[in-house]
Amino acid sequence: MKNWIQKAIHRPGKLHTDLGIPKDDKIPITLLNKIIKAKEGDIITNPTTKGKKKIKVTRKLEQRAILAKNLKKLH
């Protein structure tokens, strides 16, 4: 099971498109933390200059942010 994580990610790049950040740029950790701390249905303001200014937090967006934060720890 060399490449197990590739099979776990069903829609690569979906978090980038939801946040309006190009796939070449990294997603700031401060934005991920703010998404994770927010409640479902909240509209948060982006603390960085990358991507959309206002983001509506959904459960799926929160799950993707948690996965992205955990994968950053692996790398």
List segments where confidence is low: pLDDT < 50 over at least 5 consecutive residues: none
List the strand order in the largest sheet: 1-2
Query: Number of DSSP strands?
Result: 2
Average of pLDDT: 90
Straight-line N-to-C gap = 18 Å
Biggest sheet details: 2 strands, antiparallel
Question: How many domain units?
Answer: 1
What count of helical segments does DSSP give?
A: 4
Task: Give the helix/strand class.
Answer: mainly alpha
Approximate strand percentage = 5-15%
Tell the overall outline. Answer: globular
**Quaternary form:** single chain
Radius of gyration: 12 Å
How much helicity do the residues have?
Answer: 40-55%
Order of helices and strands: HHHEEH
Report on the architecture of this protein.
This protein has helices at residues 4-8, 14-19, 29-37, 59-74; strands at residues 43-45, 54-56. The model has no long low-confidence stretch (mean pLDDT 90). It is mainly α and 75 residues long. Strands 1-2 form a two-stranded antiparallel sheet. The protein has one domain (4-74). Helix 3 (29-37) crosses helix 4 (59-74).
Brief rundown of the structure:
With about 80 residues, this protein is mainly alpha-helical. The protein has helices at about 5-10, 15-20, 30-35, 60-75; strands at about 45, 55.
